[in-house]
């Protein structure tokens, strides 16, 4: 009994469609690519109900003749290659002649197209790949394709569709990628009637980045540009301080085609090694151009992966191009510091100067009063103390402090009785100062402790926010802050407005896509638009994280004193005190907030002991 059947072309199309048209976003990508290949200068993309309602792509490209329009939906119908020799060097985005066949096999389509130089256009309707009607029509030069009822005849696939929202976001991402890849083409995208982005098509990468990714990112990019050995690399990378919590904004293009590449992701991140915080990722849009013959784009039906014939060369070209732009950044920063910036980044000299105990005491009486349980002690002569913090009464443990020098003698007159605290926390310490505007240096019996002031402060704020049950206390802004985020960010803020409000962020979204912030979590200076943008970014890459934790983390991070910017002594004291008391050990990301260098280790380094 024969077992083998030759499948009908329709069934074969449905199978092929499964590979090419995975979800509505695949349709968006394929249709935009067709418009780009048709030489369009302007492309409009409209999706409704996440693309499951309809997808409509209009272009002003060269259009199709009635004859071509009639066969464009057949499998292997393409105007882009002729025979196998063409596969050696592909200059168009499409070439497999599969997309329209695959899309039409699983949807209903209305195509309207008019070829340049032709008086009339053609209107074709199709259902599941079969032409229902075809007639001449008056229409502008170019092509407009409307896809309805996607997957109506493949219920198995339909079941796998996510929410309209998730599918809509995937459509937006696909369109964004195409628009970033072609800054010379103006693209406009609408979702359910609302404009999501518009690129001017002026050829400038920066304009495209600005329009698609928003101002915040566009203001913090470094240009990349290198040519050599047959490979050119251009575009941008984010400045080291502008790293993000995930890799979702890393775009790579080869000869105008967006592609995914672990190799280039590695090249990018290697170039950033030691300049970016662990756990942060650079953003990039890197455009690699090389001979069409040196890249094989025929690797996967969706054409999102490519193979380079000389991988190492491409890796090196990208790696060194980025290094050069990062190096350039360092140089510029050094020579362009203005006098006022110099002053701002130079540690406050006063903070380091030696002070007689009496002067010190009088300058800190006020601080001591704000810590009623603490008494003020003067410095020990042997320590050459520049700064001594108000700390708990040491009682009998004074001997520890005075062991190496003169015993502390003065206490603030109005000091109340000493609190009961354990012996470890009572060990006296002194703050030596702040180094590199980042680390607080503290000396405690036989140890030097370096505190990462930002990480520690972040933890302190985070803990105090977390300790508030229910709604976080908020503080109304006297002057509301207004900002205009990108469509992606706006989406996420809209979706999470309720939880954000519970965490102290009150805002209103107005018709133009602007956000008016009315209140922020209490006692968190420095949060606001920047915090909301960062929260949105973090939520974007994380589907099932604890929403409240993400919001509170980011709030704490934004409100914490900044590394690289010197802080006032009182601020440092408050942070050091918490760390030295053992209350704060790790930042909310799990990094330690302090490291300890023992005298023994130092003695070994200096070969005082072996
Ligand atoms: P491919 O892009 O791989 O050639 P498709 O199935 O995507 O295959 O498209 C088939 C053909 O239809 C294309 O080769 C092109 O000639 C024509 N076509 C599709 N979309 C457009 C468009 N927007 N403008 C002009 N021609 C188009
Ligand atoms: Mg195509």
How would you explain this protein's 3D organization?
The structure is a single chain. The protein is 36% helix and 22% strand. About 15% of the residues have low confidence. Strands 5-4-3-6-2-1-7-8 form an 8-stranded mixed sheet. The chain has a 5-stranded mixed sheet with strand order 9-10-13-11-12. The protein is elongated and about 90 Å long. The chain is built from 22 helices and 24 strands. It has 610 residues and is an alpha+beta fold. It folds into 4 domains: 193 residues, Histidine kinase-like ATPase, C-terminal domain (Heat Shock Protein 90, 2-Layer Sandwich), CATH 3.30.565.10; 113 residues, Ribosomal Protein S5, domain 2 (2-Layer Sandwich); 152 residues, formyl-coa transferase, domain 3, CATH 3.30.1540; 104 residues, MutL, C-terminal domain, regulatory subdomain (Ribosomal Protein S8, Chain: A, domain 1, 2-Layer Sandwich), CATH 3.30.1370.100. The protein starts with 8 loop residues before the first helix and ends in a 5-residue tail after the last helix. Helix 1 packs across helix 4, helix 9 runs parallel beside helix 10 and helix 17 crosses helix 19.
């Amino acid at each position: 009994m024969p077992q083998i059947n030759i499948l009908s072309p329709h069934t074969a199309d449905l199978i092929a469609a499964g590979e090419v048209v995975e979800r509505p976003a695949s349709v968006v990508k394929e249709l935009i690519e067709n418009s780009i290949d048709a030489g369009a200068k302007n492309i409009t993309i409209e999706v409704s109900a996440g693309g499951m309602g309809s997808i409509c792509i209009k272009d002003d490209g060269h259009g199709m003749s009635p004859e071509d329009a009639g066969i464009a939906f057949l499998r292997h119908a393409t105007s882009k290659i002729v025979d196998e020799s063409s596969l050696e060097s592909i200059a168009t985005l499409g070439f497999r002649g599969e997309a329209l066949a695959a899309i039409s096999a699983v949807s209903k389509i209305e195509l309207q197209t008019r070829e340049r130089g032709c008086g009339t256009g053609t209107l074709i309707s199709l259902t599941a790949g079969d032409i229902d009607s075809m007639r001449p029509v008056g229409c502008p030069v170019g092509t407009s394709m409307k896809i309805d009822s996607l997957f109506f005849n493949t219920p198995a696939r339909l079941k796998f569709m996510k929410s309209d929202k998730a599918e809509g976001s995937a459509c937006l991402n696909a369109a964004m990628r195409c628009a970033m890849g072609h800054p010379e083409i103006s693209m406009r995208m609408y979702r359910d009637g609302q404009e999501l982005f518009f690129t001017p098509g002026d050829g400038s990468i920066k304009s495209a980045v600005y329009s698609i990714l928003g101002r915040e990112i566009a203001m913090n990019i470094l240009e990349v540009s290198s040519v050599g050995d047959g490979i050119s690399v251009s575009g941008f990378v984010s400045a080291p301080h502008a790293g993000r919590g995930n890799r979702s904004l890393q775009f790579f293009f080869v000869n105008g085609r967006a592609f995914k590449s672990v190799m280039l992701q590695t090249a990018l991140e290697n170039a950033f090694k030691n300049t970016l915080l662990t756990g942060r990722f650079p953003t990039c849009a890197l455009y690699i151009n090389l001979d069409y013959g040196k890249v094989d784009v025929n690797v996967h039906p969706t054409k999102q992966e490519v193979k380079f014939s000389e991988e190492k060369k491409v890796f090196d070209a990208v790696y060194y191009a980025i290094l050069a732009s990062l190096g350039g950044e360092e140089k510029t920063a050094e020579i362009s510091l203005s006098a006022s910036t110099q002053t701002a980044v130079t540690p406050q000299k006063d903070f380091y100067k030696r002070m007689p105990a009496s002067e010190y005491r009088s300058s800190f009486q006020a601080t001591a009063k704000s810590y009623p349980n603490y008494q003020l002690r003067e410095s020990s002569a042997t320590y050459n103390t520049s700064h001594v913090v108000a700390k708990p009464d040491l009682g009998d443990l004074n001997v520890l402090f005075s062991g190496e020098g003169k015993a502390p003698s003065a206490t603030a007159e109005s000091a109340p009785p000493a609190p009961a605290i354990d012996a470890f926390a009572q060990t006296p310490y002194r703050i030596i100062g702040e180094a590199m505007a980042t680390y607080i240096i503290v000396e405690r019996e036989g140890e030097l402790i370096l505190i990462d002031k930002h990480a520690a402060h972040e933890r302190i704020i985070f803990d105090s926010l977390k300790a508030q049950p229910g709604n976080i206390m908020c503080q109304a802004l006297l002057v509301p802050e207004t900002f205009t985020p990108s469509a992606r960010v706006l989406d996420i803020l809209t979706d999470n407005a309720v939880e954000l409000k519970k965490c102290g962020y009150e805002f209103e979204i107005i018709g133009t896509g602007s956000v008016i912030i009315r209140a922020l979590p209490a006692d968190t200076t420095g949060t606001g638009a920047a915090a909301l943008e960062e929260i949105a970014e973090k939520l974007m890459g994380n589907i099932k994280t604890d929403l409240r934790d993400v919001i509170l983390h980011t709030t704490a991070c934004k409100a914490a004193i900044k590394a690289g910017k010197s802080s006032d002594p009182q601020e440092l004291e408050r942070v050091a005190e918490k760390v030295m008391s053992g209350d704060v050990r790790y930042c909310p990301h799990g990094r330690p907030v302090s490291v300890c260098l023992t005298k023994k280790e130092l003695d070994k380094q200096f070969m005082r002991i072996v």
